[in-house]
Amino acid sequence: MAAKAQDSQDNLVEIMDLVVEYPNQGTPLRAVDHVSLEVKRGEVLGLVGESGCGKTTLGLTLLRMNAPGRVTGGSVQVDSVDILSLGKEELRRYRWEKTSMVFQSAMNALDPVKTIESQIVETMVQHSNTNKEAARRKVRDLLSIVHIDPTRATSYPHELSGGMKQRVVIAMALCLSPKLLIADEPTTALDVVVQAGILRTIKRLQEEMGLSVIIITHDISIMSEMSNRIAVMYGGKIVEIGPTKDILESPMHPYTQALLRAIPDLGDKATIKGIPGAPPNLADPPKGCRFHPRCPHAFERCRNESPELIDAGPTMAACWLVEKDGV
Length: 327
Prior knowledge:
The structure is a single chain. The chain is an alpha/beta fold. 30% of the residues lie in helices and 22% in strands. The protein is built from ten helices and twelve strands. The strands form two sheets. It has an eight-stranded mixed sheet. It is globular and about 65 Å long.
């Protein structure tokens, strides 16, 4: 079941019943399991969950870059384009012109033997009809947009700080003015001050350019000021989705509640309440609700039947407790 019904004209992204599997000895590993999700035009959606839950695979699928994984079911439309049916040339133009991505550990993905300018120019030429001279002129503007001195265009990656490299990658992702930006753990390996600056940069650019943004993260706390809505993913499935304020203040799914309890309390008696157990093996997930082996509220139905998203007021949660009597 998808999120609450909304005017499809407001949606930039429409994912319906998506299944993505990776080859595995014996049973395929299903990283994305019948996920339905919409992203509105101009919206920031936070996609949150533990490592291995399928959120990066979902992001990569929006660019058809999830090999060796393959889509075995469902549909994906971005700006009314069925991206799963695009041919090679159409797909090359779709990437970066319609949808771009700031990859996980992106600051380490820059080519160390090429200047910043040459790498951005190459991206523009490869994915559009822009010629090299026009691309070079635009590089200076792009660096200014992300608050980097345009004279650094001739620098090599090793001459830049971690935060500057991350902003370069954001500039590269925006070089062809895409409608959708996917940011996968955009603050990984950065100190907290630089992290805050990167998040402010993404938010500012989103507002100025009218972008739709999907921010993929395991840290639900950074979504409080960034996102309009949050989708919580566990074991390849969306288990809760709703407005950020409601997810953070009144979460309905036990997994979302556990994620929020795991955020350290910075008071005098600071504590971290971890989630016991381990995420499910996606090649052999548990029967019923995938969170039930770790859930303190699980009852018999949870162990035998897998819940769909259920209307829980402002949010939707895939939890039998919501249907039963609320969590």
